[in-house]
Every structure is written in C-alpha cells, then in structure tokens.
Amino acid sequence: MYNLELKPLRRPFWNSELDKMLDSLTKTEDFYAPACEITDDEKHFTLGIDIPGLKKEDISIEVKENHLYVSGERKFESKTEKENVLRTERRYGKFSRVFTLPTNIKADAIEARFENGVLEISIPKEEKAQPRKILISDSTH
Questions:
Q1: Has residue 63 got a pLDDT over 80?
Q2: Predicted TM-score of the model (pTM)
Q3: DSSP state at residue 36
Q4: CATH entry 2.40.33.20 includes domain 7-20+29-77+87-124
Q5: Which of 82, 92, 111, 133 lies in disulfide reach of 76, CB 3.0 to 4.6 Å?
Q6: 32-43 pLDDT, tens digit each
Q7: Other CB atoms closer than 10 Å to residue 120's CB: what's the count?
Q8: Cβ neighbours of residue 124 under 8 Å, at least 6 residues apart?
Q9: What is the distance in angstroms between the CA of the first residue and the CA of the last residue of the chain?
C-alpha cells in the first residue's frame, strides 16, 4: 500500500474552520470550487468532481509539475421563463480546483471521463518494485 495520498491544495496557514469561514465570505457568483471525492486503491487514485450542467468542452484538465489543475465555467442561461425564479442555489461562473499529486503516479497515463455531471479522473500509480530473491551462482574461476 502507498502511504502518499492525493490532496487538494489548501492554504497551509489556515485551520479548516477559519478556511471555511473565509471561503464563505469570499464566494461570489463568478467563481466556485465544486465538491470532489478522492479514492485510493492499489493501482489508481480516482478523483470525482461534481460539475452538473456542463459539457466536456467546458472543462480543462492540466498537469503542471506536481499539480493537477481542473477548471471550467458554467455559464448562466438567461431565458425568459427564468424571470419568475424565486430562489436558485445553483452555482454559475468559473470554477477551479488544484490538487497536489504524489510522486508515485504516472502523469502521462492520467485519463478522464465525464458522465452524469461527474468528472472522473483516474490517476494510475507507478508499479512498486516487487521484492525478489537473488540467486547466488557458482564461481566460474
């Protein structure tokens, strides 16, 4: 089992409660960070990011150095029938998530698929060197 884990990039000097409070004060309709789920199995890390209402063309995924950048935009649709909306909790605007990647991954083999509003990114791990027994041969001198 690997003891490195994939983690979202966070501000290291804030504790989680202060971070949540600051995020709630600074959120606007123009920018948001979608929820994600990170799983770890023997061969892959898997990231699931909830971004309903988008098309795959609206999403960008990049790997730079040891970071995975996921960004995009959900555009506000101004339709005449929306004029009578009393309340909306949907988030519109640009979104971005940055994840620090562990060193034990194959960055060139990362794959993504988008289905039912969930972006799933599969990040394969490098194969661990398997222990093997070294045989000692007879001397040929």
A1: yes
A2: 0.67
A3: E
A4: no
A5: 92
A6: 889 999 999 989
A7: 16
A8: 43, 44, 105, 106, 109, 110
A9: 43
